[in-house]
Amino acid sequence: MVYQASPARYESMEYRRCGRSGLKLPAISLGLWHNFGDTTVLNTSRQLLQRAFDSGITHFDLANNYGPPPGCAEENFGRILREDFLRYRDELIISSKAGYTMWEGPYGDWGSRKYLISSLDQSLKRMGLEYVDIFYHHRPDPETPLEETMRALDSVVRQGKALYVGVSNYPAELAAQAIDILNSLGTPCLIHQPRYSMFERWVEGGLLDVLQEKGVGSIAFSPLAGGQLTDRYLEGIPSDSRAASGSRFLNADQLTEEKLNKVRKLNAIAQRRGQKLVQMALAWVLRGDRVTSVLIGASKVSQIDDALGMLENRHFTAAELAEIEEILL
Ligand SMILES: NC(=O)c1ccc[n+]([C@@H]2O[C@H](COP(=O)([O-])OP(=O)(O)OC[C@H]3O[C@@H](n4cnc5c(N)ncnc54)[C@H](OP(=O)(O)O)[C@@H]3O)[C@@H](O)[C@H]2O)c1
């Protein structure tokens, strides 16, 4: 059956301006890091994308290396795009990145002009796209001159292969330099993509100030700490969860009793607020309006629905914020 997007898709989502740019992003965006590779049934990935788009989630985030195997998430996304979303292309913000190991030899990693431009060409082929909306440098490269990396980002915009560019995982000072170089080249930095959640708060130590001052947006990845900031692990480790999957990013060792205790206390506050912990954790990242969008992952359609419920209660009292702060200390 041909996919028809819901006519109600723009009724409940909040769209937020990305820094001082002309682009608005949905308050919730969907990342394709997990659950879009060859180990996931294609129909599951399709259902996640459809549910997201039907709910006003217009932004899908990819990278060259998402899979497994690397490249596969872009290929699978490309297929679903062709089959279901082609006529909605202009309603979508699709991003990709390069910066981690992608192919053998000295040109398949880090931040050289050679790597970034070749990698984006490959990503476009895999997804069957003429351009991506946002192209990121995925992580800082300690060896390549920053100027070269930023010039490569400027080039892909001038070549029409990306509409906007951004950086990811850049510490505050380096981000400030990158933003300045991009401005001087005439291609403003649209966005920074850092990890940010109740359990990972490094961005509060200067990065958010830099971005605000320079008018650059931000999209917080892993806002649920990979699933830790949910009720997923309160009764043990379910067999279909990320922590049970052998992931090196989330495993049983990280789910310490101390952490689970914090999760239990946070869960109690969320219940008092009449929402799920997932919803409170996402609303917390968006508090203060310095983060443009939260970039979630999902293995089930119901997880997207849970995240959307956040939009019904984004407000915190000062007392609630103080109580949360106490727990996170
Ligand atoms: N720039 C970078 O370096 C970088 C790095 C990492 C990620 N990212 C981006 O950020 C995106 C999101 O990362 P993430 O997947 O780590 O984000 P996350 O939102 O912190 O974690 C998502 C996981 O949490 C669990 N979950 C979600 N909703 C739930 C619910 N309602 N109840 C119970 N469990 C729930 C699911 O895991 P289960 O599998 O257990 O169901 C889901 O896959 C990625 O797809 C990628 O686009 C970027």
Can you describe what's shown?
With 329 residues, the protein is an alpha/beta fold. The chain has one domain (15-235, 277-315): TIM Barrel (Alpha-Beta Barrel), CATH 3.20.20. 37% of the residues lie in helices and 14% in strands. The chain contains 10 helices and 10 strands. The protein has helices spanning 42-54, 72-85, 113-127, 146-158, 172-185, 207-214, 257-272, 277-286, 301-308, 318-328, and strands at 15-17, 24-26, 28-31, 59-61, 93-98, 132-137, 162-168, 189-193, 217-221, 293-296. The strands form 2 sheets. The protein has an 8-stranded parallel β-barrel, surrounded by 7 helices. It has a two-stranded antiparallel ribbon with strand order 1-2. β5, α3 (113-127) and β6 (132-137) form a beta-alpha-beta unit. α5 (172-185) packs parallel to α6 (207-214) and α7 (257-272) packs antiparallel against α10. The protein is globular and about 50 Å long. The termini are far apart. The mean pLDDT is 97. The structure holds NADP nicotinamide-adenine-dinucleotide phosphate.
- What form results from the Cα inertia axes? globular
Helix tally equals 10
The set of bound ligands, ions and cofactors reads: NADP nicotinamide-adenine-dinucleotide phosphate
Helix content: 25-40%
CATH class: Alpha Beta
| Mean pLDDT across every amino acid position | 97
Annotated CATH topology: TIM Barrel
Gyration radius, rounded: 19 Å
Observed structural traits:
TIM Barrel, globular, alpha/beta
In summary, what is this structure?
By secondary structure, this protein is α/β, with parallel strands linked by helices.
